[in-house]
Amino acid sequence: MNSPMSATESSAPSAPTETLNTEERAGKPLRADAKRNRDKVLAAAREAFTENGASTSLEAIARRAGVGIGTLYRHFPTRQALLEAVYVDEVEQLARDAGELSAMEPWPALEAWLVRLGAYLVTKHALAGELLNYVDTNANVFAACRDLLYAAGEPLLERAKAAGEVRPDAELQDVVQMVGGIAKIQNSDPDAIARILAMALDGLRYKKA
Amino acid sequence: MNSPMSATESSAPSAPTETLNTEERAGKPLRADAKRNRDKVLAAAREAFTENGASTSLEAIARRAGVGIGTLYRHFPTRQALLEAVYVDEVEQLARDAGELSAMEPWPALEAWLVRLGAYLVTKHALAGELLNYVDTNANVFAACRDLLYAAGEPLLERAKAAGEVRPDAELQDVVQMVGGIAKIQNSDPDAIARILAMALDGLRYKKA
DNA sequence: CCTTGACACGGAGGGACCCTCCGCTACGCT
DNA sequence: AGCGTAGCGGAGGGTCCCTCCGTGTCAAGG
User: Which domains does chain B show, CATH number per domain?
Assistant: First the structure.
């Protein structure tokens, strides 16, 4: 895990491989053609974001998907919405990981989870930028996602605190943001990020004097 | 702007206040009108970057400065070049600060400097992005600046290591990048950044078991 | 003071994107 | 098979990037 992965599809929380489960929590069943187009856009977006980062032109994505730009915008009114749709599954997986790790000792579990989170975000600077920021527009599209992540990590952190392995004043929000900030560092050397992250995480265990 | 500090000029390393000293290390004496325009652009850019971040439209800057877009591009062929010209003075000041701090105890000195660096970068996400990244184009325009910073910090770090207050495996580059990464976190609450930075810096002092 | 070469100015213009709007297409229900 | 409407696509207006080149301005020598 020390090094941030390949360039393609695969990433930390083994992605769900398919895009079919999309739609989800919405009430409306989409019309056949609509669903087809939505999936085409999603697939094209996933590829494009992976290849060129979050700033890929939306028009390019539409072109790649073979749909009109208007269609893309109807399904995903903003770039953020599209990003979210592309990555929710993976973030959810990350949250689920937290549960499994609870078998380990408190600190190793927490550390492993945070490192995994970091490694994932390294491969998706795109996501990191949007997922973790408060500021910004009224409704943070990623809010739900983020809360999920927080809910998942909280137990791990609390457990480590209870075991006296992590300073009691550490807040999960701060920790997650820290990991995100470090993951977003632009550095051609993957090991450097791993070193930096490890060092910063040790700050969680530091005790005064 | 959403972040710490005032909105205007002032920032961590008391900025040199004026833009007159610009030009510098170049051989050619500029023509009178050229210098005048260069300064106008620089001033407008400083304001604009402060108000709207590094992504401010270059055309807007030219408009604000009351010069043609072509003029702006002749003096500063890239956005990076402009950023650098705007901020070199401040970064140099930051480097100079390191010297003064050496009067303090090793750890407090190092911590103070890094916190100051962080506070400064928070006000200039713009800068942080460009200054600290390796990746990217052939010639990093900021390379000189960055080296200056590293040269300034090195003694502080070494001293703290020698005093046994900082783990010996900490590298300055990593530390500076870490500070940069944390400073770039988007968060409406300035205190949060400070907390996170403090926690991460404690990682420097953590000693195994 | 005037000439004149070179330096510098400004903005038009082509390309890329963003996002909206609306006439047309084609689903799918009856 | 007919029809109401969800959904499609792309033209179009706006912004920005960056280049190129005709015109304006400086300053050194006559």
Answer: 80-205 (1.10.357.10)
